[in-house]
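Task: encode each sequence below as structure tokens.

Item 1
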Amino acid sequence: MTLPQEMTLIEITTPGGPEVLQPRSADVPVAGPGEILIRVHAAGVNRPDALQRAGKYPMKPGMSPIPGLEVAGEVVALGTGVNEYSVGDKVCALTNGGGYAQYCAVPASQALPIMRVATRQQSGFVEDLFRSQVADKTNWRALLKGDAQAVDLKQVRDGLFASCAEGLLGLQERFGLQAIQTIADIEPIEIRYPVEQYPTKIVSFNLDKNPIAEGTLLGIKGQYLIFDTGVINIRKYTAYQLAVHQ
């Protein structure tokens, strides 16, 4: 699949009301190791987005300054190490920011296909329904320390089906039973990243302030490169040129 070099995104030009959201062109993200690149067809709009726009929701280190924590769309590229998805898959995802764009790269750390839909628009409707039941509470520090709490994805899936039963029935009545189908017979996909040693303390490199990062690479976790001296969110520096010196 041939992808464009540039895309349109919506950025926050200055803290304020909806009028501060303005389009601009930017390079299409590259799916890093363990990531998938999604062509966005629907992005969730929620309270953290509004607070971020107003300047009252500072983004955590490593997160994109572009708003948008939830997207639905189509997989158009796979990062190295991703074998569980295929180009053309219809997906919904929680992001580390960057959803207000035509393309968004997201980590594929653990996944469980739960819905089969006929159109990209319907994928967005399902994602919007599910997001009302899923809190955005990712502990990125625990993730990079290897201390992320295990999640029973089957239990989460069954809970979503139960809590969203009325909404899913409404979508099926609107689009037909064949268009909106739940998937309950697939095992969770475990994705293991190559990490020799997790850090005990998370120090995030800021290449905008200091363009030099030194250390020994210990592993890769999603879009993060883990060094013995700190971590780099490589997705944040997609358009940068990198030189490696020994």
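Item 2
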Amino acid sequence: MPCSFPGLRLQLFLCFCLIGNTQFIFEHSFDDGNTFQERGKLCINTSSIRENFLSQLNKDQLLELANKDGFYLLRINTYPDSLTHVMTLTPARFLFCSNFHDVLTVHLSPKGSVIAMDLSPTNKTCRLEVNYGFKGNVTVVFKSKVLLAKSVIKGTMPVVNKKIRQEVDEQLLRYQMQNSNNGSKKSSPLVPTENEGFFQKYWIYFIPGLLFYLMLKSIPEQPTEAGGSPQ
């Protein structure tokens, strides 16, 4: 099909994506995942991404998230036009420190579907006590570097960088703790119990001997007759 779109970058993006039908949609959330809005589109063929500008409402929501140390959520559909998604998150203040530069690592299955995604802002040294804000009426757009990680063996997950995976796990745990209700904590089955006593550990080995002893006690004794020669 002829490519007659204005702008070389947009022209190449639309041509490759429309021909190969490999356009994935990024959506972000500023309210703990209750609602999502389109952030941009990813073209798998060219590893290029087209980002949307943040509206004034989005900038206000993102600013509120950063100042209360909230989390910015990002998701992508697993297939083009699919309703299923994979999601990642990062503290919103990291986006301000990184000047909205981040690295998006998208993990693909052998068939080309998205099976995992990591969002890593380029600067994670932000302090909690800083009040974040925008200087004047600035135009804000994310500047992302896209990395594609393809799984080689069918049916297996790609090897994810341990440091990134640890950071995501810690953020998820922190996110769950912030949004959980204050209630009585249930004991976890993963918490090790105290050392048990000797008989508590090995009581089962004493049962055969105990049963044998009880059987012997239950057998009545045979009376013995006094012997001797009559006189």
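Check on item 2: The longest strand covers residues 101-108. The chain is about 30% helix and 25% strand.
End of task.
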